[in-house]
């Protein structure tokens, strides 16, 4: 190797090391840095944050997949069909890993705000791409590992701990993580290419994502029947897969420790990874710096309309929400799902009502409670107010320097969430009334519960947004997905919904009857909502002005 | 028009602005100069009500910024050092938003937006999202939004950064015309030649303290502003 080549190699690896360090510090920044106080977190705070994340990932997600693994593993291992068990769990890991990382891949690879800065420095493009891929890899690994590692452990507990099973699981985990990265990057590349030519990117992204989610839930609801069918006809399906989907058999056999299958899959995944690497590194520069070929919209002089201050502020919030697919999908998914539910109720509502009535009819108001819980669950997905303060970001100076009160700004955020939630929620309730014969009193109580919950969620999200703002971000997805305000509001909403359900069915709230039980929740909603509303109008405004 | 009395602002233990007194009258272009971190931006942000200060008072047209923030804000326009505007809006939507907040009538806003957009040659770009704008274009948009509601006082932090020579020249003309019509401008700059030619009065700040202020002749005498500034910075 010539001296120049050696120097060049050393230099490249040094650059890569530096970029990887930067990328890692960016990924795990939230654990070590308090954006609100603009200083490093204490050790205790860092540890608490890590424990919280571990509880969610390992305790909740890992727990779910451990239970699934336990159900599938024993019958398959008994028939010496470990390959099928690993094939199924592996596919699930790929699905979850890709689902978890694909949304970040496009923005992380091509829309990172420091692309221009890094490209202007003497850093090889390949080093930038490699460092970006690392963050995609870590995300994919994190999500796929919560499926495949419990599956691996359960398999060893069931089939025995031996060298074959240990290495099989390790190789499969690594192969899946690399494959997930490859798949996410390819999907990210397609999104990048397509988005260069799209005019209404945000809305199209939302629609595609909704279709994706729809397909996901379609299979999810079919999963129980599919698993039962699979377990009763294991040998039949096993032979079918071996005959017509040999690659899937090979893939599953890696986990079961088959050496030949491992070599084949390693070779295959390596080839796919290299092809993806070639594609991404060749096209990165072109896509990252491209401004798109969408025709430039030329301004045409036309009549202008004067709006009131409050309407102007409200329209600003709507504009922000509808211009960002990330904001819409992560903070307003329920808004899109509620009309779908309303249509579903009209379509199959009577059948659903008859079915639920047969199951829970003995407990008065149970069916109506289930519908109330479903609506509250959908409303819990809508947390636009939670990241809305953080999303002001560097533009916060505008709201603060304009002749508007902090309350006018906060009120606009609140109003947007109230409008976007209450209209589709009302639509769902009207459809419920059309297909389900409920007593008028019960129906009124459902309306009061749902609307008061819409109010609580809006003020609670805004309260969290004001007390936990993150104004220093480089990617809009950071405050939308990773901020404390969003996490607390989201899990708070789901916790409330779970309590509503468990309280009635298990505690048992049904002894009070639907009217009294829901009456308690409405009273709590009103008290909590008004308390938070008053806080926002007084102390919340002071805090907003001081940001 | 603008009276700053004993303004003091601290960040923790550090005093960013220390007992600052300034008086800017109608018709004056008042330059504010000082090295990086001297306290210029802190002072300007305190004037426009973005920062809450620890001591002192700021009056705009006789109204206290602390007591009557909305009245004061409705009289002023602010252009920050970095024009971080709403990236998710188009240029025209942003200008309309500002016009709505300042209650500019439909006819007036149409006339002013087209007038200034034509002057800065960005009319064709107004339908583009701000995210697609260059720094200079964002700065032009921020300037148009400042002039849009005909304020009484304009506060600007480094307004010439990012502007092309033509736009820079135009801005200077607009500033002079605005003050000749009874307005007042308080702006910070590092371009001392511009300050020397454009300003009626100038204030020099160092370490949060005002070290010299007055008419251009009073401050610089027979020397250049640059010489005086460098001498004071020693």
Automatic annotation (TrEMBL), chain B:
GO terms for molecular function: ATP binding; ATP hydrolysis activity. The keyword Endoplasmic reticulum does not apply. PROSITE patterns: ABC_TRANSPORTER_1, ABC_TRANSPORTER_2. Residues 2-232 form the ABC transporter domain. Keywords: ATP-binding, Nucleotide-binding, Transport. It holds the Pfam family ABC_tran. The keyword 4Fe-4S does not apply. SMART domains: AAA. InterPro entries: AAA+_ATPase (IPR003593), ABC_transporter-like_ATP-bd (IPR003439), ABC_transporter-like_CS (IPR017871), ABC_Transporter_VariousFunc (IPR051782), P-loop_NTPase (IPR027417). Coiled coil: none annotated. This is ABC transporter ATP-binding protein. It comes from Bilifractor porci.
């Amino acid at each position: 190797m010539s001296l120049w080549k050696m120097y060049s190699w050393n230099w490249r690896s040094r650059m890569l090391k530096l970029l990887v360090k930067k990328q890692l510090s960016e990924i795990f920044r939230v654990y070590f840095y308090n954006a609100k106080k603009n200083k490093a977190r204490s050790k205790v705070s860092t540890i608490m944050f890590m424990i919280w994340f571990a509880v969610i990932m390992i305790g909740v997600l890992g727990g779910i997949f451990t239970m699934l693994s336990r159900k599938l593993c024993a019958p398959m291992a008994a028939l010496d069909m470990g390959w099928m068990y690993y094939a199924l769990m592996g596919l699930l890991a790929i699905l979850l890993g890709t689902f978890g990382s694909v949304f970040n891949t496009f923005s992380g690879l091509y829309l990172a705000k420091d692309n221009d800065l890094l490209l202007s420095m003497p850093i090889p493009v390949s080093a930038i791409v490699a460092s970006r891929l690392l963050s995609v890899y870590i995300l994919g690994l994190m999500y796929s590992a919560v499926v495949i590692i419990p599956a691996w452990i359960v398999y060893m507990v069931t089939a025995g701990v031996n060298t074959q099973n240990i290495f099989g699981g390790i190789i499969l985990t690594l192969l899946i993580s690399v494959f997930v990265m490859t798949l996410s990057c390819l999907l990210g590349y397609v999104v990048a290419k397509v988005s260069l030519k799209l005019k209404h990117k945000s809305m199209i992204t939302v629609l595609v994502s909704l279709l994706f989610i729809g397909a996901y839930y379609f299979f999810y609801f079919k999963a129980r029947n599919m698993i039962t069918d699979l377990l009763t006809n294991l040998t039949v399906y096993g032979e079918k897969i071996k005959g017509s989907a040999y690659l899937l058999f090979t893939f599953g056999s890696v986990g079961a420790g088959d050496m030949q299958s491992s070599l084949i899959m390693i070779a295959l995944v390596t080839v796919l990874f290299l092809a993806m690497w070639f594609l991404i590194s060749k096209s990165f520069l072109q896509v990252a710096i491209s401004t798109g070929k969408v025709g430039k919209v030329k301004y045409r002089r036309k009549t202008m309309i004067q709006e009131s201050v409050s309407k102007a502020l409200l329209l600003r919030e709507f504009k922000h929400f509808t211009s960002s697919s990330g904001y819409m999908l992560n903070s307003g998914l329920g808004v899109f799902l509620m009309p779908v539910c309303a249509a579903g109720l009209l379509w199959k509502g009577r059948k659903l009502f008859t079915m639920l009535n047969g199951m829970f009819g003995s407990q008065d108001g149970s069916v109506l409670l289930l519908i109330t819980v479903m609506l509250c669950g959908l409303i819990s997905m809508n947390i636009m107010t939670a990241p809305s303060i953080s999303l002001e970001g560097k533009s916060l100076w505008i709201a603060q320097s304009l002749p508007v009160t902090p309350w006018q700004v906060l009120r606009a955020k609140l109003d947007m969430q109230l409008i976007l939630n209450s209209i589709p929620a009302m639509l769902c309730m009207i459809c419920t009334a059309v297909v389900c014969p409920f007593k008028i009193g019960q129906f009124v109580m459902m309306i009061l519960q749902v609307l008061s919950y819409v109010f609580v969620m809006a003020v609670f999200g805004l309260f969290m947004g004001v007390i936990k703002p993150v104004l220093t971000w480089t990617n809009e997805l950071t405050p939308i997905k990773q901020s404390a305000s969003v996490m607390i509001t989201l899990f708070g909403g789901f916790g409330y919904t779970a309590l509503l359900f468990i309280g009635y069915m298990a505690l048992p709230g049904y002894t009070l009857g639907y009217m009294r039980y829901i009456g308690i929740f409405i009273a709590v909603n009103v008290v909590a909502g008004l308390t938070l509303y008053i806080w926002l109008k007084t102390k919340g405004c002071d805090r907003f002005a001081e940001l | 028009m603008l009276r700053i009395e004993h303004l003091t602002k601290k960040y923790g233990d550090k005093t960013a602005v220390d007992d600052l007194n300034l008086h800017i009258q109608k018709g004056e272009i008042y330059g504010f100069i000082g090295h990086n971190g001297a306290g210029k931006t802190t002072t300007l942000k305190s004037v426009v009500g973005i920062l809450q200060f620890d001591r002192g008072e700021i009056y705009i047209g006789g109204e206290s910024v602390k007591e009557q923030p909305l009245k004061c804000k409705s009289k002023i326009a602010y252009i920050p050092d970095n024009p971080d505007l709403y990236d998710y809006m188009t240029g025209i939507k942003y200008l309309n938003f500002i016009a709505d907040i300042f209650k500019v009538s439909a006819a007036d806003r149409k006339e002013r937006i087209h007038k200034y957009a034509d002057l800065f040659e960005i009319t064709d770009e107004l339908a583009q999202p701000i995210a697609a704008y260059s720094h200079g274009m964002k700065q032009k948009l921020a300037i148009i939004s400042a002039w849009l509601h005909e304020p009484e006082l304009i506060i600007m932090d480094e307004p010439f950064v990012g502007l092309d020579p033509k736009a820079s020249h135009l801005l200077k003309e607009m500033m002079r015309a605005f003050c000749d019509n009874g307005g007042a401008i308080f702006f910070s700059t590092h371009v001392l030649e511009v300050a020397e030619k454009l300003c009626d009065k100038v204030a020099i700040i160092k370490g949060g303290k005002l070290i010299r202020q007055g008419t251009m002749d009073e401050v610089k005498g027979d020397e250049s502003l640059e010489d005086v500034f460098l001498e004071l910075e020693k």
